[in-house]
């Protein structure tokens, strides 16, 4: 779930006040993650998904990587799949697509910069992972399917038959 921060930025395709702007100028999505299975079922924690930063590209790149992992996991895609269907499935019109999305991730604990223990998503599982395949077989998780639009014929415009 995205917790709206009231910030919009048309250049970054952020609308409806979904983003949060930090004092440093960094723009991120503040997300509430709910654990749906396992021994910590129904527990919540928040994570930032960085969209833009003025100091370096490191955190925004981490945010893009996490979003791609979430999209892959939610739809059962392999990260190396570059088929037309997979590429289309990773295209989002708005960050609001991430609001309420269900995916498989591994939660871990790390130290914050203030020295406190924090939950984080260590990695997302996708269609290539054995653990992911086991969850599908046990029907613990069912991936969503996004169907691409029909493709246009690739013949030249003047060669209509």
Shape, principal axes of CA atoms:
globular
Percent range for β-strand residues: 25-35%
Q: What does the average pLDDT come to?
A: 86
User: Helix proportion of residues, in percent?
Assistant: 10-25%
Number of helices: 3
Low-confidence residue ranges: none
String of helices and strands: EEEEEHHEEH
Distance between the termini: 50 Å
How would you portray this structure in words?
Helix content is 20%, strand content 28%. Strands 1, 2, 3, 4 and 5 form a five-stranded antiparallel β-sheet that branches. It has a two-stranded antiparallel ribbon with strand order 6-7.
What secondary-structure arrangement, pairings included, does this model have?
Elements: E1 2-3, E2 7-9, E3 14-21, E4 27-34, E5 44-52, H1 58-75, H2 84-89, E6 105-111, E7 117-124, H3 130-137
Antiparallel strand pairs: 1-4, 2-3, 3-4, 4-5, 6-7
């Amino acid at each position: 779930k995205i917790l709206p921060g009231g910030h919009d930025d048309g250049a970054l395709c952020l609308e409806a006040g979904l983003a949060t702007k930090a004092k440093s100028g960094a723009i991120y999505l503040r997300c509430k993650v709910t654990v749906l299975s396992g021994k910590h079922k129904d527990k919540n924690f928040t994570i930032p998904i960085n969209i833009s930063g003025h100091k370096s590209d490191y955190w925004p790149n981490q945010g893009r990587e996490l979003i791609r992992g979430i999209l892959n996991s939610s739809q059962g895609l392999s990260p190396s799949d570059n088929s037309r269907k997979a590429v289309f499935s990773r295209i989002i019109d708005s960050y609001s697509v991430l609001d309420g999305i269900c995916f498989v991730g591994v939660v871990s604990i790390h130290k914050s910069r203030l020295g406190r223990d924090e939950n984080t998503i260590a990695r997302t599982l996708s269609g290539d992972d054995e653990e992911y395949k086991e969850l599908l077989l046990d029907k613990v998780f069912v991936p969503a399917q996004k169907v691409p639009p029909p493709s246009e014929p690739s013949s030249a415009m003047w060669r209509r038959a």
